[in-house]
Amino acid sequence: xxxxxxxxxxxxxxxxxxxxxxxxxxxxxxxxxxxxxxxxxxxxxxxxxxxxxxxxxxxxxxxxxxxxxxxxxxxxxxxxxxxxxxxxxxxxxxxxxxx
Length: 99
Fold this sequence. Notes:
- By secondary structure, this protein is an alpha+beta fold.
- It has one domain: CATH 3.30.1330.30.
- The chain is built from five helices and four strands, in the order αβαβαβαβα.
- The chain has helices at about 1-15, 20-25, 40-55, 65-70, 85-90, and strands at about 15-20, 35, 60, 75-80.
- The chain has a four-stranded mixed beta sheet with strand order 1-4-2-3, sandwiched between helices.
- Strand 2, helix 3 and strand 3 form a beta-alpha-beta unit.
- Helix 1 packs antiparallel against helix 5.
């Protein structure tokens, strides 16, 4: 799981991540991966599924809270806009994924 935390941290520091529901709705850039917290509301999970279908990217529902993975409180959804970081997270998703 440390690799996942590092990859998400790299994405955030490099401004290659979109954090939050309203930011995701407004996003114009290409999205390669969406991560949503398992404890998120059903409405947010539905938004994540719809956004993933619309953007043509994978969706990962995380077991550990996203706040734990990002070291930022109250994060329930994050989108990765860097292809290589998204690919690295997907390759290691068995450590965080439930779906």
